[in-house]
Amino acid sequence: MAGLELDRRRFLALAATTGAALAVPMPFRAHAESTFAFRELDAADMSRLVRAGEVHPHDLVAAARDAIERLDPKINAVVTKFYDHAFELAEKSDAAQPFAGVPYLIKDLSDYAGFRTTFGSRMSAENVSTTTGPVAAAAVASGLIPLGKSSTPEYGQLPTTEPLVHGPTRNPWNLAYSAGGSSGGSSAAVASGMVPIALSSDGGGSIRIPACNCGVFGLKVSRGRNVGAGAGSTSFSVRGANSRSVRDSALHLHVTQQTGANAHLPPTPLVTGPAQRRLTIGLVFDGVGGVAPSDEVREGVVSAARLCEGLGHTVVETRFPDSVHGMGNRLMDATSRRILGIAKRAEASLGRPVDEREFEPWSLQIIEHARGITDERHAESVAYLEGMARDTRAMFEDFDVLLSPVLATRAVKIGYLSPAGDISFDEMLGRNQGYVSYTTVFNVSGDPAMSVPLHWADDGMPIGIHFAAGVGQEATLLSLAYELEAARPWKDRHPPTSVWNDG
User: Fold this and answer.
1) Alpha-carbon separation of residue 184 from 177, 198, 205, 402 (angstroms)
2) What is the CATH number of the domain that holds 165?
3) What are the pLDDT digits (tens) for 350-404?
4) Cα separation of 469 and 408, whole Å?
5) Does any domain span residue 498?
6) 81 an active-site residue?
7) What is the DSSP letter of 422?
8) 237 noted as active-site residue
9) Residue in 206, 336, 381, 445 annotated catalytic
10) Domain range for 314
11) Cβ(464)–Cβ(208) below 8 Å
12) 357, part of any domain
């Protein structure tokens, strides 16, 4: 592995700026030592040091590369690596950019020109993108330097990241557990210290679920917020980031949102701290179908509610509308045609039906389910979800924010939601619905929501807490998140398999 030399001036400046106890002799070479030097920095700190001329982006990229090489064999979060490209970007980095020189990963559902985008699938394992997605392009233009692609389940369909083509991404807090999905690679990489921030996406909880499981911060933005995004009622998926600090996600939103005359929403100003306004917060315990949280999740939600009350906010218990409790399989019915369309295109090219050579068993089950959905049933499901969205948005007439679990339980073990087809379609649906019972509500409604790492189980596993606000109200969520981060800091909580502890 190539070495990295840092001169004494840079190192001492870094130590003085961060206040970290960096008792490493100078000069030193990249590996555990260089990772140690940078491990206390979030993305905002890294870019500030680059702008001040105290650290070169090459140094940051090398430290991130070393962290990935050291930790990824255990975690399996990075499925495609392009270090040479990252070093090329580092040499051309513009120190004036807001994220100047900051290491980054791009989720394997997002195109990045010249490199593989596998979508977590054997069918597209050798697919090389010819274009870069709008959000990835905006992120790189802001100074972020991608070192690779982070793992995702096949076509982002599961709340765990265990694609058969790449193998499972493991939770750095306990390697026997799932990192969550579908942005499991992004969250595990951030939680373990490989990078401070990573591009993610969320079509049913895919930013918030792994943020909850991995003890990092995850914000899902409003429908239509992202650059290049549509604002239709069935545009359930948005792009965003998983990060270790609120300010990093706030800045990521700022540089990847739509602006100008064609923006679907008024741009959100850069949120830099708490607001003075006190909020009325609705407290929800039961999720879709009346699913109730486990005792340890309920404990975390109650603790978060008391924390909010202690900060001067008003918390009032409420419940989701009846349409939320009755959603059933309608989201599956409304969205499964997407992968059916992928399968049909593949079948036209192959000249035969798709099978396990192309798709995982779980995906094949969804494809067969979608083939049986009539146009009338699809239209009924879409209409139901549109009504449910109106009912959900109406809650924000009474509440500024809704507080709930992210998931009904803590992270599940690897294999519980495996796509390998070891259990029936109905059993798999039941397991998913008993686990993911809160986040999907706000993909349907289009409202912004976030997972905040505020609670840890007795054995040290993180349990994120969910907050949502009305469409376009990301500033309300971020201001609250800053306040919660200051009141109950998580920056010094680190998983066993990480740059802080694994050695």
Assistant:
1) 11, 11, 11, 25
2) 3.90.1300.10
3) 999 999 999 999 999 999 999 999 999 999 999 999 999 999 999 999 999 999 9
4) 20
5) no
6) no
7) -
8) no
9) 206
10) 8-336+373-487
11) yes
12) no
